[in-house]
Every structure is written in C-alpha cells, then in structure tokens.
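Kindly inspect the following:
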Amino acid sequence: MKTAYYTILFSLALCSCANGGPHFLIQQDTLNPDFKILTDSLSSLEFGENCGFDGSYQPLGRKAISNLISGKHYSLIKSILDCNNHEGRIYAIEALLKLNLKGDLELTEMEKQKIKSIIEEDKEINRCM
C-alpha cells in the first residue's frame, strides 16, 4: 500500500513539473519511464551521442529521448523544458530543434523563448566521452 502511495505522489510531482505548476490530476503520459529519466532532477544523466572508448555506449538520456521521439511523444518532450534536469532539457532542446527542422512539429514563440532562455543560462552539463 505504501508503494502505491509513493507512486501517486511521484506522479503528482511529475505532473506539476510537466505542467509548470501544481496539478492534481495524474496524467498517464507522465508515467512514461523515458519521461521520468529525463525529468528526474536527482538522476545523473550524461549528454552525448556515442560514448566510451570505442563509442559503443549510448547514454541513458539519449536512449530515453530516442524512445520519446520514435513514440511521437512530442508534448512530453516539450514539457521537459520546464523541468530541473539540465541534461534532460538539453536532450529535449536538441530533439525539438531537429523535429522542427524536419517539419515534424511546429514550435510556438513561447517554446522558442524557453529554448533560448535555457541556452542562455549557460549551466554546466555532464557530458560523456
């Protein structure tokens, strides 16, 4: 019973993050495990494409954003911009800009401003080598 309670609390926190403020309805999409990986402020994601000595290691964040893109969860990717995981936000920015260039999605002026603001924050991110 305790596990279910904590799962609901965690889901509410994710909804709050995804929607820019407190929200009391659990949205099923926010239970997506890839979304959780990219929005968890306590996770230690690394930004990169192919990492490791021989380049065969694909970071967890890269796998997660690829899954969201292939599942066409574009609204979830957009909502990552409002969360506190800096590496997750960079993955989201990269994905949104690529999708926009391909014509798969249109970015609103507000979303463009969010992206610009995040880039201008000039925060350090963990990168894989």
User: Anything to note?
Assistant: The helical segments are 2-18, 33-39, 60-70, 74-80, 86-102, 109-121. The longest helix spans residues 2-18.
